Amino acid sequence: MSAHNGTSGPNDESRPESFHPKPSMHSPATLAVHADDDLNRSADVAPALHVSTTFRYARDPNNLKPSSDWDIPTYDPSVPSSMGDAHIYSRLTAPSTTRLESLLTQLVRAPCLTYSSGLAAFHALIVQTAPKVVAINAGYHGCHGVLAIHTKLSGLKVVDLLDPASWDAAGLGAGDVVHVETPLNPTGEARNIQHFAELAHARGAWLTVDATLGPPGLQDPFRHGADFVMHSGTKYVGGHSDMLCGILATRNKKAYWGLYTERVFLGSVMGSLEGWLGVRSVRTLELRVRRQSDNATALVRWLDGLLQSKEDSEEARIVMKTVQRVQHASLQEDEMSWLAQQMPDGYGPVFAISMQTPDMARRFPSKLALFHHATSLGGVESLIEWRRMSDATVDGSLLRVSVGVEAWEDLRDDFMSGFRALAAEADGAGEGETVQAGREKISAGKAQEAESLRAIPPVEEEVTSQWNSNLNF
Fold first, then answer.
1. Does Ligase show up as a keyword for this record (predicted)?
2. Residue 231 in contact with residue 118, Cβ under 8 Å?
């Protein structure tokens, strides 16, 4: 990849090697239903499921081209009608996945490729960019696990995203990667894409954005300087907790075709069933995500309002007794100058609650009726997770909340019922189990947390720490 200077990255749309998405006369909600109409090869209104792994060559010998004569890059992935149905083998393309990619290309506003999972997409991104240095901080720990593998294989250096001095010390420059996840997993807090784009592009580096928690309909990272955008499509693109999917998008032609070719040999394509499920899910993406984001923001404002309340109400007393803090992009009031531009239509459906003690965090999910205690996020159902179940790097008091499409008032009442039950247990357990005693135990409470983690099935001793660090969803 060539070096580049200034604030425009290698994806600068003025460059001839970039795809130029044409503005659509239709809204994203309409595109989600109709952007793949040109790929429909039957009279079925609902997309057909194609499960074949291989496809017949043309019957006319004059139309047979040996692989050395293929000129795949002549098709424009930003124009669905140009993609046709000339499928050969499903590790290259297949009807269902191609149809999903055509929909996503219109919604993300850049050519998209799908993968077997979000981590497969991130791995493909690192393979394509081949950086010597990656700047990253916090966020989804699975990405850190992928980088650890590349560090072992290639000597890749990983530096702190929030410490630009460490970038320069490591020699971060042309062809390297600045990776920003926004909103962040598991807190739902946002980061300024344009700020990091300027820092990255000034050094000739790529800006890659993991926008899983801010799917199409909530933010457009390309508008703020991203060169690559990735999603774990398992989450909001899938939206029903029934498919695995990864997504990579870029407007850079050379990078796109590099990703396309490398995917063939990495073998990390998603299955046809998952592609078909993805098409089904994208139809309602905007409806779901807007509702989920609105629900989450309403819950966060209600809960934070009780924590900040000056009134001596029963609800406020109970919440203060059980909850330390709430984290979500909607609470970043000091950063609204950029955040309102970056996320004008909602702040995301994920937020974090820190309970007064790790024991309260472990017990709270079992007090709820409407929230499933499970990992992952993005489905129509509301989930809550004591995050230590799958990520040993987070504070033991943290709960991740993924809000669904239910009525937010019902979710609020379910929370309140759970807080009441916890508070009643604390009040009835005696002084040794009060919140104050729990706070005093935190410094010595590592043993208690370790005890809870022993519930995880044992693995070989030498890989236990790696297992606990990377079992992350």
1. no
2. yes
